[in-house]
Amino acid sequence: MKLLNILLENSEFKQEEEKLKKDLENNFGKYNYVVNLSSYNQDRNDDDPLKGKGFGKVRFMNKEDIDENLFNKVVAFLEKIKGYKITEKTREYDFEPGERDYFPQIKFNFNLK
How many other C-beta atoms can be found within 10 angstroms of the C-beta atom of residue 51? Predict the structure, then answer.
């Protein structure tokens, strides 16, 4: 088993990842979503803006650009319904021949409970 698979299986946010993926599928269709959630190291000063924060990413594992209207709805859902702070987003699919694929994705931060 690959190390990445082992780490993902033991994610402290596994249930939240599965729930978010199901919410996305139910609300926006059956794209091939990959959801990753984690937390920043909490051994931080009290005034550090990342203390008490987690981070995540939703990737659309489709080899195509995502419709702008749909993409904006997903961003709004993550911000308004889930309460996440979007830190980066791209709706375009790109690839570098012989290198790698760049899939549409939305990165965000969130408050730990």
Answer: 14
